[in-house]
Description:
The complex is a heterodimer of chains A (457) and B (447).
Chain A: H1 5-8, E1 39-42, E2 48-53, E3 59-66, H2 80-87, H3 99-106, E4 110-115, E5 120-127, H4 131-143, H5 149-168, H6 171-184, H7 197-202, H8 205-215, E6 221-227, H9 231-240, E7 266-271, E8 279-286, H10 296-308, H11 314-322, E9 326-333, E10 341-349, H12 355-372, H13 376-393, H14 397-409, H15 414-418, H16 420-425, H17 429-436, E11 445-450
Parallel strand pairs in A: 2-6, 7-11
Antiparallel strand pairs in A: 1-2, 3-5, 3-6, 4-5, 8-10, 8-11, 9-10
Helix pairs in contact in A: 2-8, 4-9, 10-13, 10-17, 11-12
Chain B: H1 16-32, E1 41-44, E2 50-55, E3 61-69, H2 82-89, E4 93-94, E5 97-98, H3 99-109, E6 112-117, E7 121-129, H4 133-145, H5 151-168, H6 172-185, H7 198-203, H8 206-216, E8 222-228, H9 232-243, E9 265-269, E10 274-282, H10 291-302, H11 309-316, E11 321-330, E12 335-344, H12 348-365, H13 369-382, H14 390-402, H15 409-418, H16 422-433, E13 438-443
Parallel strand pairs in B: 2-8, 9-13
Antiparallel strand pairs in B: 1-2, 3-7, 3-8, 4-5, 6-7, 10-12, 10-13, 11-12
Amino acid sequence: MIRTATTVAAIGLAAALAAAPAFAEEARPAPPVIGPNVSTFTLANGLEAVVIPDHRAPVVTHMVWYKVGAMDETPGKTGIAHFLEHLMFKGTEAHPEGEFSKVIADNGGNENAFTASDYTAYFQRVAKEHLGLMMEFEADRMANLRLTDDKVLPERQVILEERSMRLDNEPSAILSTSMDAVLYLQHPYGVPIIGWREDMEGLDREDAIAFYDRYYTPNNAILVVAGDVEPDEVRALAEATYGKLPRRVEPVRPEHPRPGLIETPRFVEFADPRVKEENILLKWVVPSVTTGEPGTSEALDVLSEVLGGGSSSRLYRQLVVEKKVATAAGAYYRGSSRGDASFTVYAVPAPGVTLETLRGAILDVLAETAKSGVGADEVVRAGQRLLAGAIYAQDNQATLARIFGSALAIGQTVEDVQQWPARIEAVTAEAVNAAAGRLDPARSVTGYLRVPADLRG
Amino acid sequence: MPALAVRSSLSPRLAPLALRLLTLLAAVLLLAGTAQATTVQRVTTPAGIEVWLVEDHTVPLIAMDFAFRGGASQDPAGRPGVASLLSTLLDEGAGDMDGPTFQRRLDETAVRLSFDAGRDAFSGHLGTLADRREQAFDLLALALNEPRFDADAIERMRAQLLSSLRRNATDPEEIATRTFSRLVFGDHPYARPVEGTPETMAEITRDDIVAYREATFARSNLVIGVVGAVSAADLGPLVDKAFAGLPETAKLVEVPEAAPTFGDTASEALPNPQTVIRIGTGGLLRQDPDYIPAYVLNEILGGGTFSSRLYTEIREKRGLAYSTWSAMVPLDHAGLFLAGTATRADKAGEVVELMTAEIRKMAEAGPSEQELAATKKYLVGSYALRFDSSAKIAAQLVGLQLDGMPIDYFDTRNALIEAVTLDDLRRVAKRLLSTPLTVVTVGPTSS
């Protein structure tokens, strides 16, 4: 088996379990609970906090998640959320640029940050005795960021290089970006998180400060601490640091209409000499855990496993093993988002097979699934695969921190996360069939990554 | 003079009282905290196989890593890629189960099984719930001892690897690595790509795969590390189930010590907006007495923190790149020192000069006392971060054994780092960074 990153992506809210799931053949015990020891508190200034104890090593993972991301940008200023994330490392009134990083390094910690469509997060991993110090610095830059042009302008070059590295150097990323623009239309999920290059080139200090002032406040942030801690000590440290910050602003996240459902299939093609191997993607807009009725997102999780999660899946078996029209095939769905999500099917053609033929074969599998429905055994096995991800996540405090942080940042609760295995186990074949009905070819966007015609052997 | 941003700072710095409270709390936490040492047991199974075990029943999981010395260096000379193809096939059918059936069994038991071919070792990983350990080791035993290598599985996996080779043909980082290896290693096995080439991957036969496995899967070249909820007594029979049936002695082809040559420059054309740069020279073998000082030196020059010299000069000051790094690469038969980055194509020349200048500056003057102190503090303090998951610890147990490190290394490593002096670093910097550099660039031809 060759694992591709995409097969693992199907796990939406996987996390720790209190009890092990059983075989399909045996009587199943009560559904496991993710993170049974997780607790929460909220400070007077609105900062929400989550504590995830794991005492196996004297280490903590300290994260702050802001409930703002690329989707909150305004046209013409795309890329500012990610740019601000970079600029948050440029110093505050009390602590000049580099001091926080130096303190982290001096104390043997690691740090980083990331920007997504729905949220932006900053984190450090340190020996547990340095947690208070990390909170002091993180709280400081939540309120006291100080930017000057000589800090901002070189960093603008850095993000342009980052865009080149991640996007413009990568034909598959170029295609993906175009597909999302076509799929999401006027919805901001159609804008790359790094930003449109023309916008990025014009972002300046005022833009960054305006975004910071609009969204970076304790009442728009979630603190997540995982590791060798107990809730009381985390609370005490949080009160002494974050607790001293006033609510700066009441953030208003722009509302976006759901992307329109268009009933004509759309096609995006990118042919480039750097492409040595063609592939096809099909995408649909589907409900997420936020926009869908209860149970819909879990049914889509299971559907993505049934259709394309690993080598027992329908797409892999039929396209790769039986018909041999593909060397790889799968599906994925990431339902943990504020807006509507996308459901993706992908395949790589076997030599001599055209992308159009492969598309036909994919649609045949989908049509067959829609017509005859899925079997109960497929549903159970898909559920087991999803829950396996949850089992192994409990080995890693940083993974648990990300799972809870990302869920709460889109408006889920700790209990929502804890009960995810139960909701997965409750998914019925009927629900999966209903989910499959959403994958109507008429509503799809197809992406073709092509070797240019004149270069084909 | 640039205008200062006027920030309306609504909240003052932390008041002195709050800071005293923090210090007090920190002290309390230090006293209350348990300093957990990671105890490694040397276990000998009933069949006489050695396993390094870290027993921890907190989480009901078991993580096992293992490796057979040899790896891609044992591929037949004209046919690189055999180990790589083999690594995809062990879980694609074994015993009575064909590929899809074996995969389904893994799904049903939530057992994680994977294999990987590296330059000097063929490795594997087994993850399981503690209460599924019998089934997990049964599946591993089948994969290792009775793989089927069915024709359709071979063709399916070959097609996937060919697909990946095609994609990598235009990946600038992959091109840089391949070009660099070819330039410095000449005729040595290390010049051959671990994944093979599209030509060689197309030619590998079932006999090649069987022969590789029969020669290299043995007890004499095996190392194992286990972490998790299992006792030594329970572990022994499980390990024996998987490994005791293998031949006693591996039939490894001797790999000569490499004598890499440095100083060449090569440029590969790729129409990207960025140019990938790879610079390298000789490094050290893991067992070299200077290895730890060299490791510390590398951390200062281009290691993982935001304060390395390369990061500061190239990204921080000039915004010329997103990622810039250096690394010690101790292979079994050669040591390398590498540095790399990716930058705008029209700045590539400037960046190569900057990186070269930083390397030479370090060779001539070494680091400062302050850099040494800060880096030691970081390396010592961050060591604990490598121990917060079973998977990480299991990987380290195998790494230690492959490198010939002692079983108490986890306890002594920090003292080794603390013992490094400025004189050590100056000496090692001259030793490693004064030699000719090989420079590879991958980008548009006009850069």
